[in-house]
Amino acid sequence: MTAATPSPLFPRVSTPAEYAAVPRDADAVLEGLDPEQREVASALHGPVCVLAGAGTGKTRAITHRIAYGVRAGVFQPASVLAVTFTNRAAGEMRGRLRQLGAGGVQARTFHSAALRQLHYFWPKAVGGEVPRLVERKVQLVAEAAARCRIRLDRNELRDVTGEIEWSKVTQTVPEDYPAAAAKSGREAPRDAAEIARIYAVYEQLKRDRGVIDFEDVLLLTVGVLEERHDIADQVRRQYQHFVVDEYQDVSPLQQRLLELWLGDRESLCVVGDASQTIYSFTGATPDHLLNFRTRHPGATVVKLVRDYRSTPQVVHLANGVLAQARGRAADHRLELVSQREPGPDPLYTAYADEPAEAEGVARRIRELITPVEQGGGGVPASEVAILYRVNAQSEVYEQALADAQVPYQLRGAERFFERPEVREAGLLLRGAARAGNADPALTDADVPSQVRAVLSTRGWTPEPPAGSGAVRDRWESLAALVRLAEQFCASHLAAGRQVTLADLVAELDERAAAQHAPTVEGVTLASLHAAKGLEWDAVFLVGLTEGMVPITYAKTDPQVEEERRLLYVGVTRARRHLTLSWALSRSPGGRANRRPSRFLNGLRPGSAAPAPRTPGGGGGIERGGGTSGQVRKRRGPVHCRVCGRTLTDAGEMKLRRCEDCPSELDEALYERLRDWRAEQAGQLGQPAYCVFTDKTLLAIAEAVPGTEGELSGIPGVGRRKLDKFGADVLALCSGRELTRAEGVDGTGGSGSEDPARNSTEK
Fold first, then answer.
1. Omega before 252 cis (within 30°)?
2. Interhelix angle for 667-684 vs 694-703, to 10°?
3. DSSP 624-656
4. 345, 378, 399, 369: which is closest to 574 by C-alpha?
5. Per residue in 430-479, pLDDT tens?
6. Which end of the chain has fewer CB within 10 Å, C or N?
7. Which runs of consecutive H residues, i.e. helices, occur in 170-228?
8. Can you tell me the distance from the alpha carbon of 507 to that of 447, in angstroms, rounded to the nearest whole number?
9. Tens digit of each residue's pLDDT (9 = 90 or more) over 542-561
10. Beta 300-304 vs 306-307: how paired, if at all?
11. What are the respective helix, strand and coil percentages of the chain, to the nearest 5?
C-alpha cells in the first residue's frame, strides 16, 4: 500500500525526485499501486467503471492507467482524451502524466475540449468565426429582466441566472421551463412563468448580438456533431480512448456530448463516487454513474475503498455520516478503510453565539499554527481550512482571524493570476527577463534572487507586514510568487537543468492560462461546495445547526440527502485534525434555541441515535406488539461495509461484506477463537457450530469488538450467546489469553484491554 500523498490547496511544484523518476518501462508504471489501483491501471480494454471513495487515490489510479496504456503501446498519446471538471484538476492530471512519461495526452474540462473543437470545426460547419463568448452572463440576464419589466434584486438575479444555466445543461427550452422545474422539485426564485420569459429574452439578446455563453459551447458542439457526421467521424478518428473523472457530476448535456465523442465504441473509463454528488442544483446527476453497468453489461467495475488521506478517526466519522443515508446513492455508498496511523479524535464544540464560535475557532487555529518549539501544533497556515455552508458566513471568521493575527485567504474569491499585484509582478518579471544582464541588480544572481529583487520594488519584504487587510494580502501574493520561483528552480537544478528568469516567466504564463496558482500561506475560508476536490491537515466545519446543515430550503428527501453528502464531503477534506462546531444563538445574549445538525445525531458525544427509519428505509427500531414493551430490531437490507452493495447471501450478510471485497481479518485472533470454540464445544458436548459458526467467528475476527455493544451488533451473537460467551470473546479480542481459573463456560470476566493490541480501524 502506498503512503498518503500530500495535496495542498493548489497543485504543488513537483519535487526533484519526481522530475527525475520517470518510470523506466510500462511495468514500472504499476509499481507502488495497491491491488485495486493496479487493477484499474491494467484494465485497458472495454468499458471500465471505477467507484472511488474520498482519498482513495483515484487520480493516481487513472493517470497510471493512461500512462501504462501509453507505455505498453496500447494507447497512442494523441488518441486519449481525459476529461475532468476544473482547470486545476486538468492541469494536475497533465503534470502527473508528464512525470509518468505520457506527455501528449489531452487532459481538459468538458468546456475546454468542446470549445477547442468548436473553434476548429466552426468555419467548416457554419462559416466565419465562432461567436464571442460572454464570460459574465449576469449582466445580460439583468437586461433581459428589464426588457420584461421584471425587477430583480442582486440575489434574485444570481438565482435566475442559475435557473437559466440549469435549463440549458438539462436541455430545457424556455417554454418548457415551468413544467421541467415543477417535475424536478426546484425551488424557483421567482414565478416560473416570469423566469421562462426572462430566459427567452436572454436567448434573443444573445442571437441579436452574435454572442454565446458557457453552456452554448456544449450545445453548439453537440449540434455540430449530430448534424455533421463527417465532422463526428473526424473527431472519433482523433480520440479513440476516453477517461472521465468525477463522473457523478456529469449533466445530461455533458453525457450527450460524451456519447457523440464515443460513437459506437466502448473504450471508456469513468471514475466517480455517488456519495460525493453535491451539485444537482446545476444539473449534475449520479444516474449515469449508477447506470453504467446497465448501459455497459460487460464493464469492468473496480472499487477503491482504501483511504490514504485521513486518519481512522476521521474516516470513522465520515462512514458514520453516511450510515443513515437513504436513497439510490446511499445504496451504492463505499465504506472507507483508513490506511493511516491513528490521530486525534474529532472535536465537537457548542458555542453560545456566532461571534463566540468564530473567536473560539480562531483561537484554536492560532494554537495549531504556532511552531512546535513554541508549544503549538506546527501546522502550516495553508494546511488549515474553515468550511461553512454559505459564503455569507465568512465575514465573522474573517474578522476573528484578523483579530487573532492569523493570515487567511478566501477560496472562490478573485483568481490568483487576476489579482492586480500578480499581474503587475508578471509584467515586471517579463521586462526583467527581456533586459537580461542590462540591469546591474540582476547580474550574476540566481533566479530566486532576481525575483526577490524585482518584487522588492513593489512591496515584497523578507518579513510579512504587521496586521492584516489589503497590505498583507498584497504581500502574501508576492510571497507566493517568491516561493514558486524557489521551488521551480530547485526542482530543475536537482534534475541537472539550469533555468533562467525567462523560463520562470514562461512557467507563470502557463500556470496563468490553466489557473494553476501557487500556495498562499494563509488559512483557507471556503464554502463546502468550493472545498470539493481539496484537502487540508486541519479542517474546521462551522455553523453545523439545523437550518444551515441541512439548509432551510432543503425540503424533499433527495434535497436533505444531498445536504448529508455535503457534510460528508466536508468531513473527508480533513487529513488529521477535524473540528465540528455550532452556535446556540445568532448574537450575544440571544435566545439559545438552535439545535446541532441532525446529521450528527448518534455521532457526537451525548447525542441520541438517529431517528428510526421508515420500513421502506431498511432499518431502524420499532416497538414490539406485546405488553412487555421490549424493543425489537427491524431487519432491513444489509449493505457491504466495504463497497456498499446490497447483500443477499446469508454468509455475506453475517460478514457484512462481499466475499471478494477486501478483508481486515485478524488471523491470529481467528485462530485463537477457533481453539477456544473447540474447547467450549468439547466441554458442552455439542458440535462446534452450536457455539459460533465459522462465519460468525470470521465476523468477530474482522470487527475485533471492544465492548458488549459492538459484539452484540455482529449477526449470530444474540442475547443468550452474549451472556454465555461474551466475556470470553471480548477477552480474546483484547489480546488476553484465558486461564482455566476463569472457566470455559463464559463466566470468567472480560479482563482489561491490552493497550498494545491491534487498533486498526475496521
1. no
2. 140
3. -SSTT--EEEPP--EE-TTT-PEE-SHHHHHHT
4. 345
5. 888 887 655 655 666 788 888 998 998 888 888 876 544 456 667 777 88
6. N
7. 177-184, 192-209, 214-227
8. 13
9. 999 998 999 887 888 888 99
10. unpaired
11. 50, 10, 40
